[in-house]
Design a protein that fits this description.
Elements (H helix, E strand, L loop, with lengths): L20 E3 L5 E3 L10 E7 L3 E8 L4 E9 L3 E3 L2 E4 L1 H15 L6 E8 L1 E8 L9 E2 L7 H11 L8 H5 L10 E6 H9 L7 E2 L1 H6 L3 E2 L4 E2 L1 H7 L10 E2 L4 E5 L2 H6 L9 E7 H8 L9 E5 L3 E8 L8 E4 L6 E9 L1 H13 L3 H8 L10 E3 L15 E3 L7 H19 L8 E4 L6 H11 L2 E3 L4 H13 L12 E2 L3 H22 L3
Parallel strand pairs: 3-8, 8-17, 12-15, 18-24, 24-25
Antiparallel strand pairs: 1-2, 3-4, 4-5, 6-7, 7-10, 9-11, 13-14, 16-17, 18-19, 19-21, 20-21, 22-23, 25-26
Length: 505
């Protein structure tokens, strides 16, 4: 369970002051439950993911999700450019909400999470951003990154938001605004496009544009880059998850529930934060988890002053004194889709079934999965399929794909002292993947619920002062010691190939 300190008022939220503060059992200050809310209330949770928008009803009294709707997005990739249409996010969110609200009786708030480190424009935007969001993996700003690295003295990558801002003309006036996450955009639309716009500390931290504890932009960096004029266009960073406005009548009508107009809309943080909370790892000492979805990482929450041995340290959107560390391997979903279409010509589901026909070690086939680079250094990493012989079959290749993903996640966790982990995300449907994670980490607790949208529900409930249930989901699974030894041997072979490749990256 998370415990939020009472935030400073948000100017454009226009919410009543009926929510005060009280001390919880751990002695931390948190919002007091409004007299208008009860433990039977439902939170409409929304997760704007890279591949789908999901909606669910969360009931704090039962720590449950009523159901989830999924609507896929189209991603447009041309060379180094990778974009999606924010209008599709909105359409998907409206459709998903309409479906999940059909039998809802007592919805009292909406809580929104989503993908991070995007560049989204709203208003009279430059041509580059006309109904096009530049995703976190968009790497077209190669020349801009080179120039910025020289003028700032820091390593600036083409995927960094500073590089992407350099692609835009210098703003002559504030006739448009910029957002940096999927939740920013949906909150902005759902609250009626207010004058102020918001993001969270976790999302802001991914951009590299902030300074610790990531509640303020690094104005000196913008000055060095010659991009200070963009700061007023960027969203305000809320100190922790809070209501940023109320659902406007226009959106309430479009989802078919006009009576919901006026309920609070909570910005529940970027997906790295909501997944961490949904996995039960939102507080210091709560353990590690492995997430396998469109992206993939090993994550945990540590104290802000702890030694950070992981590749990425993200701001904790609710607590200044905590940090989410993540050993990230970038694109698990892209690896599976690419392998299915290129090597095996089958569906991702079929790939998982094919992999079960092979044995640990994949008959010597080794897959290094960095086809979209490597978020753990070095970013310039590439992938490979090694060890092919005439005796290899489709099952061996499929198994090598999944083993490569398992090994890359274990490799990315170096120094995190994980031990047993919770396993979450769509890839949990693969028995090979789950067995591999269990073997490498010494035990895996499988959580089949959609933890991103679950986390948004938990965060929204607690931001409004509702107590949430601590519920343990899934059972711990361990593979036999002999099987674990074989997995470890296969990992050593995989690591040898990666070490040889690192010399030429």
């Amino acid at each position: 369970m998370l415990f939020f300190a009472t935030p400073a008022p948000v100017k454009s939220a226009h919410l009543s002051s009926s929510v005060g503060s009280r001390l919880n059992t751990r002695g931390t200050t948190r919002p007091k439950q409004s007299a208008l809310m009860s433990m039977d209330d439902e939170i409409l949770a929304i997760d704007v993911g890279t591949s789908a928008t999901k909606a669910a009803l969360y009931c704090p009294a039962y720590s449950s999700l009523a159901r989830v709707s999924r609507h896929t997005h189209d991603t447009y990739a041309h060379g180094f450019a990778v974009t999606q249409r924010p209008s599709n996010w909105l359409s998907a969110a409206l459709s998903a909400c309409s479906e999940v609200l059909r039998d809802a009786r007592n919805v009292t708030a909406i809580s929104v999470t989503g993908q991070m480190q995007d560049l989204i424009g709203v208003g009279d935007v430059p041509d580059l951003l006309k109904d096009q969001a530049l995703l976190y993996s968009d790497a077209r700003a190669v020349d801009e990154a080179t120039r910025l690295s020289q003028v700032t003295g820091a390593e600036i990558l083409p995927t960094d938001l500073l590089s992407k801002l350099s692609l835009l003309p210098c703003p002559s006036g504030q006739d448009y605004i910029l957002l940096i996450g999927g939740a920013d955009f949906i909150c902005y639309e759902f609250t009626g496009r207010p004058n102020l716009h918001f993001t969270d500390a976790t999302t802001a931290a991914t951009t590299g544009l902030t300074q610790h504890p990531h509640r303020k932009y690094n104005t000196e960096l913008f000055k060095q880059a010659g991009l200070s004029s963009f700061i007023p266009l960027l969203p305000e960073i809320v100190p922790r998850p809070i209501p940023v406005g109320r659902l406007c009548a226009r959106i309430a009508n479009r989802i078919g529930r006009p009576e919901l107009a006026g309920i609070p809309v909570v910005h529940s943080g970027g997906d790295a934060f909501s997944v961490t909370v949904g996995a039960g790892c939102g507080v210091v000492g709560s353990g590690c988890y492995v997430y396998g979805g469109s992206s993939g990482w090993v994550g945990k929450t540590i104290g802000a002053d702890s030694n950070n041995l992981a590749a990425l340290g993200l701001a904790h959107a609710a607590v200044d004194s905590a940090t989410i560390v993540a050993g990230s391997v970038a694109a698990i979903g892209a690896c599976l889709s690419h392998a299915s279409a290129t090597f095996l010509q089958c569906t991702v589901s079929d790939l998982s079934k094919l992999a079960e026909q092979s044995d640990i070690g994949a008959a010597g086939v080794i897959y290094v999965p960095y086809i979209t680079g490597r978020r753990c250094p070095p970013a310039r990493a590439v992938g490979t399929l090694h060890g092919l012989t005439a005796s290899c079959n489709r099952g061996d290749i499929a198994r090598a794909i999944l083993e490569g993903l398992v090994f890359s996640l274990f490799d990315a966790s170096e120094g995190m002292q994980c031990g047993e982990v919770s396993v979450v995300g769509g890839v949990t449907e693969s028995s090979v993947f789950v067995n591999g994670i269990s073997a490498m980490f010494g035990g895996a607790k499988l959580q089949e619920r959609d933890v991103g949208v679950l986390g948004a529900g938990i965060i929204g409930a607690e931001a409004l002062g509702l107590d949430t249930m601590d519920e343990s989901v899934g059972s711990l699974y361990r593979v036999p010691e002999k099987e674990r030894t074989r997995w470890m041997h296969a990992f050593k072979r995989w690591k040898q190939i990666v070490s040889h490749m690192e010399a030429i990256w």
